[in-house]
Amino acid sequence: MANEWVQKSIQIANSQGYLDKLCKVYPADVLPRRPLDDFDKQQIKLLYESKDSKGLINFLLGLTRRGHPFPIEHPYASIFRQNRDLVSKNPLVLQYLEKTIMSMNLEDIIRGCERSIDLNRVMGQAFQSWLKQHFSSKKVPFLPEVQFQNYKGVAFLDGKDAAILNFVNQKLGFALERGRDFLYKFKNGFVVGEVLQEVHRIGIWMKQLGLSRVRRGKF
User: pTM, whole model, 2 decimals?
Assistant: First the structure.
């Protein structure tokens, strides 16, 4: 049998106006493109036309540090972007990326570097912004850990991921393996929530932490 909160999420997802309401949390605005300046375009053209594939890859990775995406979505490019030292340590992967990029048209490479931010990459931030705006307007505070622990009313922990993970495991005696998106405190216990984002589904999974378990914590 499905979890109670999963059933509630399914009912809400199939209800009238669900996506209309969801747009208030996740605005579906098309994000602007990130145009390259003339110098960067010229550098890409020179490296491409001279067939300096290694130099082109390194230049494109350098652009990612200035807020531009790599021309194609690729997991290896993402790893190289995060740790440039790995480029020289993995020549076969580098050659693969060189071959892939050089097989593209120059216009497609430039267009790829100028594309807008993927909406999925800003979904998490959008939820956090909505959460604080919505509940702060209802006078529900977001408190740092010490104040949250001692607060007698309803409140959110002002933090996410690691901060929530540490609080739930250390203070409430649970053993979650990864962080969550919010921790809410109410009269009879706590609710820890996680936003699940997929291509065709955005739901909220919530697990209510029972009062009996809370009593085993460090309060």
Answer: 0.54
